[in-house]
Amino acid sequence: MRSLATLAALTAAAGVSACNTGSVFDLQPAVDVGTTSTVQPGVGMQALVPSNPYMTAAYPRFDRPLSSPGQLPQEEVDCRKELKKLRVSYTDLAPINDGGQCGIAHPVKVTAIGNVEMKPAATLTCAMAASFASWTRNELSAAARWRYFSGVRSIRQGSSYSCRKIRGEGVLSEHGKGNALDVMAIELNNGKVVDVRKPGLFAFRERGLLNTVRADGCSYFTTVLGPGYNYDHRDHFHFDIKNRKSGYRACR
Fold it and tell me: Which intervals hold domain Extensin-like C-terminal (predicted)?
């Protein structure tokens, strides 16, 4: 097996960038919960995937930085101005097209929101990045200071962009459009790690924090799902900005 250094050298020679992630690989899950195998578009090789895709990636993803940022539509330019106001650290990526409906026309890779690190970096649409950054700054950070007298050090996410369908429905997940992000745990500056999984009976502060940020998420996202909704969401919060003509918001 070739070493990472060798792979990095080959990648650089091919003009591919790791986009400031600190690694050649951006590990993202490729399929929805329960799937056991997948084929990466354009590669033609099968990779085994664990029953919980939030734990391990099916294959490494190589992201390419955007070579001409000036070509962005005005709404994308305005969105990036909003990201800067929110102190979001991000990199513009080249368009992602994985065939069918999967892809992002103007993706960004978010590495941090102010002093809050994103682990690992999240590939999203700019609109989703802005919504998530607003929620993080206005709700999550404020709730952590109130409950724990501590700021937030990092957000551990399990899935951002990922070309997959919703299990049992055959409908493309919002992850396949870059409009969704799954939060697994929240690490505080005091060293406390708040796991999103349903806390114990006497974990009053954890339960209070999670209930607060989950409820407040409905003001920033059109879909908020988490533990208690169904088995697939037992260990994470799912946030997305799905566009529904009726204006309905699914907060469960």
Answer: 78-252
